[in-house]
């Protein structure tokens, strides 16, 4: 079965950096686009970034463009989110997602807290 396990979250000061990882299993990772989304307290889950199967095409939410970078290593079945110049408004639980066969699969999420 599809499994996604996020890691790398934590507490960081504004202006700092974190790198999130999402380890995938249970499907042919290298043939699917992968997404990162986040959910801030009291808000709905929101799109952050996506990367196509090869890694050559990426797309970002305007709020993170220029600060976050999504990447993947198909040999390691892992997708990453490098987050630089973090802001307090980036505080959220971050999730990776794959859409496979019309269904969305999610990890358990990793908490990112940015202090001002």
Structure description:
The chain is mainly β. The strands form two sheets. Strands 2, 4, 5, 6, 9, 10 and 11 form a seven-stranded mixed β-sheet that branches. A four-stranded antiparallel β-sheet has the order 1-3-8-7, with no helix packed on it. It is globular. The termini are far apart. The model has no long low-confidence stretch (mean pLDDT 97).
Give me a quick take on this structure.
0% of the residues lie in helices and 54% in strands. With 116 residues, it is mainly beta.
Estimate what percentage of residues fall within beta strands: over 45%
Sketch the topology as an H/E string, one letter per element. EEEEEEEEEEE
Report the end-to-end length measured between terminal Cα atoms.
40 Å
Oligomer: single chain
Mean of all residue-level pLDDT scores: 97
Low-pLDDT sequence parts: none
Number of helices: 0
Number of strands: 11
Structural class: mainly beta
Largest sheet: 7 strands, mixed
Radius of gyration: 13 Å
Shape: globular
User: Helix share of residues?
Assistant: under 10%
